[in-house]
Design brief:
The complex is a heterodimer of chains A (400) and B (278). Chain A is α/β, with parallel strands linked by helices and 400 residues long. Helices cover 31% and strands 21% of the residues of chain A. In chain A, the strands form three sheets. In chain A, strands 1, 2, 5, 6, 7, 9, 10, 11, 12, 14, 16 and 17 form a twelve-stranded mixed β-sheet that branches. Chain A has a three-stranded mixed β-sheet with strand order 3-4-8. Chain A has a two-stranded antiparallel sheet with strand order 13-15. In chain A, helix 2 runs parallel beside helix 6, helix 7 packs across helix 12 and helix 9 packs across helix 10. Helices cover 35% and strands 21% of the residues of chain B. Chain B contains ten helices and eight strands. In chain B, strands 3-2-4-5-1-6-8-7 form an eight-stranded mixed β-sheet, with helices on both faces. Chain B is globular and about 60 Å long. Classes of the chains: A alpha/beta (400), B alpha+beta (278).
């Protein structure tokens, strides 16, 4: 594929509102996970809750979008001057030539969950205040972002569980290659809600403690929330060497099970290989892998085997880590959040160490980073895998 | 070929297979006769068959939405004569399974909050994409989109971009099932409707027409079906049924143009040509 420029990017999660605090947390290997005190949840678990989401106020004209997910989206859009950068992008290409592709798994589902507690005793009706299209529906995120950003180009929401906001990079790059648009705002926003907290708990996939990806004693995920965005567009003729490029995208399906990965990581391997192939790179060209690394025994085992297989022929093992020990698993926002973490890693020469992981699973066939390292890197690969066997890998690289 | 920066880029593909299920529309074979006006259209509840290809344990777990998405996809793939196992797939719907959503919300509003694990993994928007890959062994890229009432047009653009850029056949399945009470009051959908298209970059032996698609910012309103109030009501009420104007041209084997509602002020203009006769 023709490389695309990440003209601008930002991330908001429990480790920081915007790039600088995120970078500081990654450098210090700080985890944002804390015992769950969210809403009325009584589960013994840790979550990566973003501070201040409840304090966000939407203007009266956008009231119908008011929900935790869109408040988090707004918080994320207010970081790092994203609004100005999108306006400049629209200035370069025109508002109908800038696409909008966002990922979420549960959107504003929390509104409906809590509205079900306030049903009319006689009729069972939901309260009048619940706005389905503005909050619950998956597209509400993009409809809200369009209003805030003044975008009028092609748009959709990808909701493929935990690969959602990695796959938006694929949608955007195809739309750009097909000539429908010249640039796109891509990203993901997913927020804490009861469906995911109790749902993952019912599958016995949630740890009582802060998650510890790829640890021998890993015992489940910690759920987080995040908003992360990137503006991608056709690169100019001359590039700043610090510029970050989207080099490759790989997408595959497991065809194995709805909620368990293929034990040998068959689909994960296919996604990584395809991402490298579209980038025109070999496994030796990758300097860092940001693993999906959720912290469940089976997910990490499957991904570990897939990564070991893809990078088997390298003379040096590939350095890799999951950043979910710091951020929690931000589900539909994880792909975009971790793409931004890779962009930070490339820009600042930082290989994030895995927060919380104490004893690395000795069966891994690669170099799992327990401690953060500073060294210049040129290319990074990011993995995102979800329910339904939906896999996506991205390759990002420095321009110079 | 598309030109970078062109204001009105055109995407094109051949329609190699169609799948259809809706009120009074049992499949594309019989439904196309009704749409073409060759037989009377009589509305009746949508009848959704059990999904083919899934092992019994998985089949029992599927809800109405997954069954619908898979049924139309199977029809389209069979008509196209294309092996689904390497076929990229785009699934597009304005909502996930409404009954499962309702059950989960009821459980979460109760005192025990014991969500069923199967319901939880079936509640994801990409459940249909996941079960499709289980049913067919498809390992290629598949995606699950939502664009609220524009979900059919958004899915069509996504599928056409895949065809144009990767030069491969692509399956599009767009579908919608109604919510039960009380969510139905917030999102009224009269019945289930699903449509699937197999789109190919080259003309294949089973191609029934060619479509060329353009984004249009003119003020032209979306096409309607004014001569049939039942079908027009269905088209207007169900996002996936926005496809009915296009399907009627295909059923009539008639070249022409339809305009679909899309996002904001934009429309998607679909020109149908090279219709196969007979």
């Amino acid at each position: 594929m023709t490389p695309l420029l990440l003209r601008h990017f930002t991330a908001t999660s429990c480790i920081g509102l915007g790039l600088q605090p995120t970078l500081d947390s990654l450098r210090a290997q700080r985890s944002g996970l804390a015992p769950c005190a969210f809403e009325t949840v009584t589960l013994q678990t840790h979550v990566g809750e973003v501070p201040g989401v409840d304090d966000v106020r939407l203007p009266a004209t956008l009231k119908r979008f008011d929900c935790r997910n869109n408040r988090l989206a707004r918080l994320g859009m207010d970081a790092d001057g994203l609004l100005d950068e999108v306006a400049a992008c629209v200035g370069r290409w025109g508002r109908r030539r800038v696409g909008l592709f966002l990922g979420t798994s549960t959107s504003g589902m929390l509104e409906t969950e809590t509205a079900y507690r306030r049903r009319d005793a006689a009729t069972g009706a939901l309260p009048d205040s619940l706005d389905y299209a503005g909050t619950h529906n998956s597209y509400s995120l993009a409809a809200f972002a369009q209003q805030v950003l003044g975008l009028e180009g092609p748009s959709s929401v990808v909701s493929s569980a935990c690969s959602s906001s990695a796959k938006v990079f694929g949608s955007a790059r195809r739309m750009i290659a097909a000539g429908l648009i010249d640039a796109a705002l891509v990203g993901g926003v997913d927020s804490l809600c009861l469906t995911t907290l109790y749902g993952f708990h019912s599958l016995q996939l949630v740890s009582a403690n802060p998650c510890k990806p790829f640890d021998v004693a890993r015992d489940g995920i910690s759920i987080g929330e995040a908003a992360a965005f990137a503006i991608i567009e056709r690169p100019p003729v001359s590039l700043d060497p610090d510029g970050i490029l989207l080099l490759g995208v790989g997408e595959s399906s497991d065809a194995y099970h709805m909620s368990s990965p293929h034990p040998e990581g068959r689909g994960a391997r296919a996604a990584m290989l395809q991402a490298l192939e579209t980038a025109g790179l070999t496994p030796e060209d990758v300097d860092y892998v940001n693993l999906h690394g959720t912290g469940t025994p089976s997910n990490d085992s499957a991904e570990g085997k897939a990564v070991a297989a893809v990078f088997a022929d390298r003379p040096q093992p590939v350095p890799a880590s999951s950043t979910k020990g710091a951020t929690g698993h931000t589900l539909g926002a994880a792909g975009a959040l971790e793409a931004v973490i890779c962009a930070l890693a490339l820009r600042h020469g930082l290989l994030p160490g895995s927060a919380n992981t104490q004893r690395v699973d000795p069966s891994l066939g690669f170099e799992y980073l327990r401690a953060t390292m500073q060294r210049p890197i040129r290319r990074a690969l990011s993995n995102s895998f979800g329910f339904g066997g939906s896999n996506c890998s991205l390759v990002l690289g420095r321009a110079g | 070929m598309s030109r970078p920066g062109a204001q009105f880029t055109t995407l094109a593909a051949y329609i190699q297979g169609v799948g259809l299920l809706g009120p009074g529309l049992a499949d594309w074979q019989s439904g196309s006769h009704s749409l073409a006006g060759e037989s009377a259209y009589s509305p009746g509840p949508t009848a959704i068959p059990a999904p083919a290809g899934l092992p019994p344990a998985e089949r029992r777990r599927t809800g109405t939405t997954v069954k619908l998405a898979l049924a139309v996809a199977h029809q389209a793939v069979a008509a196209a004569g294309i092996d689904p196992d390497r076929l990229p797939a785009v699934f597009s719907s304005s909502g996930a399974d409404g009954f499962i959503c309702h059950e989960i919300c009821e459980t979460l509003a109760s005192t025990d909050r014991q969500v069923s694990p199967t319901r939880f993994h079936n509640s994801v928007h990409n459940a249909a994409a996941g079960y499709w890959s289980l049913a067919t062994g498809a390992t290629a890229v598949s995606t699950a989109l939502c664009a609220f009432d524009a979900s059919f047009a958004a899915g069509l653009l996504e599928a056409l971009a895949l065809v144009e850029v990767d030069r491969v056949p692509v399956l599009l399945s767009a579908y919608e099932t109604p919510y039960p009470h009380p969510l139905s009051a917030k999102r009224p959908l009269p019945d289930s409707f699903g449509v699937a298209l197999v789109l190919t970059p080259e003309r294949g032996p089973n191609a029934c027409a060619r479509i060329t698609v353009t984004l249009s910012d003119t003020e032209i309103a979306a096409s309607r079906l004014p001569d049939d109030p039942h079908l027009e009501a269905l088209r207007a009420a169900v996002p996936a049924a926005r496809s009915l104007t296009l399907l009627r041209l295909l059923a009539r084997r008639e070249p022409g143009t339809v305009v679909l509602d899309y996002i904001g002020g934009q429309r998607v203009r679909v020109e149908v040509s090279e219709c196969r006769q007979g």
